[in-house]
Amino acid sequence: MIKVENVCKRFDETEALKGVTIKIQRGSIFGIVGRNGAGKTTLLKILTGVYKADSGSVFCNGEPVFENPQVKSKIFFVPDNPYFFRNFSIYNMANFYKGIYNTWDSRHFENLLKIFNLPLKKRISKFSKGMQKQCAILFALSSRPELLVLDEPFDGLDPVIRQSVKKLLIEDVADRSASVIISSHNLRELEDFCDTIAILHEGKILLCSNIEELKLDTCKIQAVFKKNFLPESLNRFKVISYSKKSNIEVIIVKGNREEILDTLKDFEPVLLDILPLSLEEIFIYEMGGLKDELTQIMD
């Protein structure tokens, strides 16, 4: 498990992270979403021990990450702009990583080469950004780390390769119970394969939740009642939004669905519809006044 507690980081006058606290379970695909400049890269570099937090703590399976070679040997970090030795080909870099990670899987590496279909003799430094990103992901998956951390991995990838990478990450988690932390400036890019999403804005975590639980616990109700409806009757649940248009009550509420419906029956509903909510809608309702900020990571 990855445990981040009250992490802060400052660069000169800029507060990059402000008391970030998250927990990431083993076997999870954890997405961190935020617009450019939100602090995503800084957080990932602290998680992987590249940066040291000014305050707070980061533990991986109970061990501190920073300046801990034993822990870092089980982590592979794919930055937004991967670095490769200038004259190295794919096989040259593969041999380099094979010497670093004792978990390197040569058979898996050869199988992945068939999927990515990259030129083997050409120097990686001559590749396009998208091809270099594919190389980095190829080496990461071949290294079989316990924790795989990827910063904006889909930038520069075409739609077919994006789907292939997502499938490979899901298979890696399913086969080995590996953990994946992945950042993006676009929520829609992550919501279809992450199990947990955190929204980072101006160095703070605004929302962190399991996606399926969030969808199951949150519902939109449209109803017409015979009796006068009292919104306070739902106070034991979390009412995110309430409005009334003509005779129609519109309620966005979190809680046990059966208990909510039992409460509403007291007002003798003539019409009662439960409507599905997209993850985007749930986040917009949850974040209320920060709707503009959220809209920027939906586009």
From TrEMBL:
One term of GO molecular function: ATP hydrolysis activity
Presence of the UniProt keyword ATP-binding in the record: yes
Alphabetical keyword list: ATP-binding, Nucleotide-binding, Transport
ABC transporter domain location: 2-227
Keyword Membrane annotated: no
Domain of life: Bacteria
Pfam families in the record: ABC_tran
SMART domains: AAA (SM00382)
CDD domains associated with the record: ABC_DR_subfamily_A (cd03230)
PANTHER family registered for this protein in UniProt: ABC TRANSPORTER ATP-BINDING PROTEIN ALBC-RELATED (PTHR42939)
Protein's name according to its UniProt entry: ABC transporter related
Organism: Caldicellulosiruptor obsidiansis (strain ATCC BAA-2073 / JCM 16842 / OB47)
